[in-house]
Design brief:
Blueprint lengths: L3 H11 L10 H13 L18 H4 L14 H4 L9 E6 L2 E2 L12 E4 H15 L10 H8 L5 E5 L9 E7 L5 E2 L2 E6 L4 E10 L6 E10 L4 E8 L6 E10 L4 E8 L4 E10 L5 E10 L4 E10 L5 E10 L4 E10 L7 E10 L5 E10 L5 E9 L3 H9 L4 H17 L5 H17 L1
Parallel strand pairs: 1-5, 4-7, 5-8, 6-9, 7-9, 8-10, 9-11, 10-12, 11-13, 12-14, 13-15, 14-16, 15-17, 16-18, 17-19, 18-20
Antiparallel strand pairs: 1-2, 3-4
Helix pairs in contact: 2-6, 7-8, 8-9
């Protein structure tokens, strides 16, 4: 049921949308999304997919998009720069910052959507908004209504990015709503490593509503690391939509350390035989914060392979939610899929709600899933203490080791090391 509060929150957000009447590719898409937002409502705990996540703290505040980006310098973003990923796009409060960005080498297109539009209109029109369906998702529709200076990555046929590509989204202003958009189109036989990085230079409340679309053609290879390390007072809503074709492989790692409340939806569809998907995830929350991850891997064709491991580390009065759905369609014979949800509670007040789902409509498949929720093993703590470690250090070391299993798969050394340090810092505090 639509409420007055739902209407006002969406209407207030949409009030900042001023470019929906543009006549180009982006303008037409935005106009459709604006119309759709008017028919949607903010999800509530009465909705099955949101029953553990109350958005009331978000809807009680007011947000508008930034009109002018904060003038940052290279020194301001130096803590987030990655030496082994020099090619980057930087967005400040959702606004493209060309003075802080560095183009990619070779044939790879790394550009803002607006800058690339004249030359890449056909590719943008074909793919933008195709995978991240917004007809039934209010936040994806809102993001699409504001799509403008998004990030575009185009990999031509057979092209291989020589170094990782870094998309850096920086929040700087209080009570600002930003709508980052990423479009990655990988032509047949192409490959790249991509870092999608959300950071903050403010400790105030704000809203990041992000959408990413990844279209992989035959035999394409994409390694995607998505890092959410926003302000602990901020709100983060994310949607990643992936299409994998014949023989293509998508490896996604999702790391969530920040935000007062975060929700990330990952939707992967295998559209041809032999597509492969591997998902890894780590959420680390404490205090009264909440991290919610919903994933869906949809095998629609035979010979698909998917692997998923998601972990949550929850301390204080924090809460984590994981819902992992694997669907094997009737014609998707010989699918091989496995899913694991492992969760660690660091206090008696911490809570995890985990729900792995298998929906199998084919009869010749190999599928498995499992979930565990528990605390640190007392024997392991005792063993480390017997070797001279304090109780706090023993617990910190075991907690770090629990999360490091996900972090070690990050293919960018400098990013992996920084995230490991962040985990150590948070576990020591816990």
């Amino acid at each position: 049921m639509m409420t007055v509060a739902d209407n006002k929150f969406l209407a207030d957000l949409l009030a900042g949308c001023t470019l929906a009447d543009r006549g180009d590719v982006l303008g037409k898409l935005r106009a459709r999304a604006v119309e759709r937002v008017g028919a949607l409502t903010v999800p509530t705990t009465r909705d099955e997919d949101w029953r553990f996540t109350d958005l009331a703290p978000l809807t009680h505040l007011s947000y508008q998009p930034a009109r002018v980006a904060t003038a940052l310098t290279a020194a301001d973003i130096a803590p987030f720069a990655l030496a082994d990923a020099p090619a980057r796009l930087v967005f400040v409060d959702g606004i493209y910052a060309p003075q802080l960005s560095t183009p990619a080498s070779g044939a790879v297109v790394l550009s803002s959507l607006t800058a690339a539009l004249p030359a890449q209109a056909a590719a943008i029109e074909k793919e933008l908004g195709r995978l991240a369906v917004f007809e039934s998702n209010a936040f994806t529709a809102l993001n699409t209504a504001f799509v403008n200076d998004g990030a575009l990555v185009l990999l031509p046929r057979g092209a291989a990015a020589s170094q990782p590509l870094h998309l850096l989204f920086v929040a700087t202003q209080k009570e600002v709503a930003s709508y980052p958009r990423c479009l990655v189109v990988a032509a047949p036989g192409s490959s790249a490593t991509l870092i999608e990085d959300y950071v903050s230079l403010t400790e105030d409340a704000y809203l990041t509503n992000a959408v990413g679309e990844f279209a992989l053609a035959d035999d394409a290879r994409i390694s995607h690391v998505r890092v959410q390390r926003e302000s602990t007072a901020g709100f983060h809503i994310g949607h990643t939509a992936v299409s994998i074709a014949r023989g293509s492989r998508y490896h996604g790692i999702n790391i969530g350390f920040g935000a007062r409340l975060s929700r990330h939806n990952v939707d992967v569809v295998q559209t041809a035989e032999g597509g492969e998907c591997e998902l890894g995830g780590l959420a680390l929350v404490d205090g009264n914060r909440l991290a919610d991850t919903h994933t869906s891997i949809d095998h629609t064709m035979p010979h698909g392979v998917s692997r998923q491991q998601h972990k949550c580390i929850v301390g204080g009065s924090g809460r984590a939610v994981f819902n992992g759905r694997i669907v094997v369609r009737k014609g998707a014979q010989l699918t091989n899929s496995a899913q694991s949800s492992r969760n660690l509670l660091l206090s008696d007040r911490a809570r995890v709600d985990t729900k792995p789902q298998l929906e199998i409509f084919a009869d010749d498949v190999k599928c498995a899933h499992g979930a565990t929720v528990g605390q640190l093993d007392a024997d392991e703590v005792f063993y480390l203490k017997s070797r001279g470690l304090s109780d706090a250090m023993a617990r910190s070391l075991l907690t770090y080791a629990f999360g490091a299993e996900i972090l070690r798969d990050i293919p960018v050394a400098s990013l992996r090391q920084r995230l490991e340090q962040a985990v150590l810092a948070q576990t020591e505090g816990a």
